[in-house]
Design goal:
Largest sheet: 3 strands, antiparallel
Order of helices and strands: HHEEHEEHHHEH
Radius of gyration: 19 Å
Strand order of the largest sheet: 2-1-5
Helix content: 40-55%
Shape: globular
Number of helices: 7
Number of domains: 1
Length: 192
């Protein structure tokens, strides 16, 4: 018997090691971005967001399971500041302020290596793809890039459901229209 799809949205994915996965991923991303000219808290937030959303879109499961919210400069994990403060207290990272092109970056510097045993190779591959995609971009650029439909559909400070990963900023193509027409006919959907 087919299961009826849930009408509830997924804002976070609970797991016994969710906070630990996020901490380790922050360390991993900071390690990978150590030589990046542009890497601060804004870019870290976008790498986490895009990695979780890309994983959810491709595999139905995010990497960290963190809850995200719409902020002025784009999506960010809920509670990221207190999490980073705990990491600083535990001497897992330090936050160094750097001035780049007249702007201040709050750069996470890892003080130990990330424990990657919590992740699959698929998880790390997705994070590496996102880092590559955002590598040469400034905080302003990644912030503006993150203001797509996933962000626009929410009010400021609203949570962003993981299902927003299925929304696309790509323009509708003739093939999309044709496929929609076929599906509408097949399932008896009324067109307006």
């Amino acid at each position: 018997m087919a299961q009826k799809p849930s009408s509830e949205l997924t804002y976070e994915v609970h797991g016994p090691d969710r906070a630990q996965r996020c901490r380790e991923l922050i360390i991993y991303i900071a390690e990978k971005c150590a030589q990046a000219e542009f890497f601060g808290s804004v870019k870290l937030n976008k790498i986490l967001f895009h990695s979780d959303m890309r994983s959810f879109r491709k595999y139905g499961q995010p990497i960290t399971g963190m809850k995200y919210q719409k902020l002025e400069h784009g999506p960010a994990p809920v509670g990221i500041k207190p999490l980073e403060e705990k990491m600083v207290e535990k001497k897992e990272i330090t936050i160094r302020q750097e001035i780049k092109h007249g702007r201040t970056q709050n750069r996470a510097i890892p003080l130990r290596s990330a424990k990657l045993t919590l992740f699959s190779g698929r998880d790390i591959a997705i994070v590496d793809e996102v880092i590559h995609d955002l590598w040469g971009k400034t905080a302003t650029q990644v912030s503006l890039d993150s203001h797509g439909i996933q962000w626009k559909t929410r009010a400021l400070e609203d949570y962003i459901p993981y299902e927003a990963a299925y929304l696309s900023d790509e323009p509708i193509t003739p093939a999309d229209i044709e496929r929609t027409t076929v599906l509408a006919s097949k399932y008896g959907w009324a067109s307006q």
